[in-house]
Automatic annotation (TrEMBL):
SUPFAM superfamilies (alphabetical): UDP-Glycosyltransferase/glycogen phosphorylase
Name recorded for this polypeptide: Glycosyltransferase involved in cell wall bisynthesis
Cited Gene3D superfamilies: Glycogen Phosphorylase B
Pfam families: Glyco_transf_4 (PF13439), Glycos_transf_1 (PF00534)
Keyword Cell inner membrane attributed: no
GO MF: glycosyltransferase activity
KW Nucleus (keyword) present: no
Highest taxon of the lineage: Bacteria
Assigned keywords, A-Z: Transferase
InterPro entries: Glyco_trans_1, Glyco_trans_4-like_N
Signal sequence coordinates: none
Amino acid sequence: MCWNARASHRDDGRDRRGTVRPRGAVKVLQVITKGEIGGAQSHVLTLCRELARRDVNIHAAIGGTEERPPLSEALCALGLPVHRIPALGNSWNPLQMARALRTLVALVRQQRPDLLHAHSAMAGVVARLAGLLTGTPVIYTVHGFAFKAGAPWKRRAAAFAVEWMLAPLTRCMVCVSAYERQLARRLPLPPARVTVIHNGVEDVPNQGQGRTSAAETLPAIAMIARMAPPKRPDLLLQALAQLSATLGHEIPATFFGDGPDLPAHRDLAGRLGLHAATFQGDVDDIPVQLAHHAIFVLMSDHEGLPISLIEAMRAGLAIVASDLPGIRELLPDAEHALLVAQDAAALSTALRQLIESPALRARMGAAARQRYEQHFTAERMGTAVQAVYATAISRTPTTP
């Protein structure tokens, strides 16, 4: 846990309660279920960095029992106060949830933020209940509804019931894609309180200005994904085996990301005889790593608006991905990417197109990079979120 003067004592700024806050800054407590490396965590880190530049008073509350989770370390490095809620996790155990709620309520009463901003499903549950108990407005960013098609039916039913009950406690629901907003229409929440703000990532100098010579001589493939459902690295491994048989040689591929299914995927690569497929685990220099690759693949059973694809767009890579609603929002046509069915043969065919055509790879990579610059920067995301904060604070508690 990292503490500084703002985090270690009761804050005397109470804009929401009638006292003018020092520096006039809006104070927001970001709440997220876990601090591991993942899409939601990357989003929170980018958002906190962007908002802090705009003089928003940012605190973060992170769940989980990991002693020094990556998100906590990154936020502390920015000088932002981080609070831990060990009982907050993915468990539906009522006693554990009650402990998490009690801790968050105490934190809110101590720190007196103007807003709570929750990320991920369980944080959304606990934060909205804490908001009810403390009179604090809650923004809830949906990184992907658990009741969407593709998720197990029991999980879908439970997730929908919870979101239905808690929707009235949401001052504003932020969806990362228009598809998620369509799903939100099934909830008892006025349309005016649901908005779409696409994920954004910060630009990196010299990104999208060409691959390394090695990457173009032998076009290597990259995939960034947590090794757990809904991600499907197994489909890429099967496609690589088919390509090897067709081309007579292996195509190098690197898998970035950790997770419970990592041993199983390594075992599958061995059984398929894929000696050029490597698993790097979590890395903190993604832009550097992507510069050594020419093609990016993301196969998933369902998605919100995957940040790893935005990172690939920023890098100017040619992209092959699952044909899913959120991904189509990022990459709307064949000019920007090849979107394929959840099938190893279809993926293998698309990859062969790119491997055999350097010109096609270059055109698609340039188009993806341009789309990133126009629509998916951190600056655009920060501006939109800041506007949501202003609207949420200006509304009275009785606003429907």
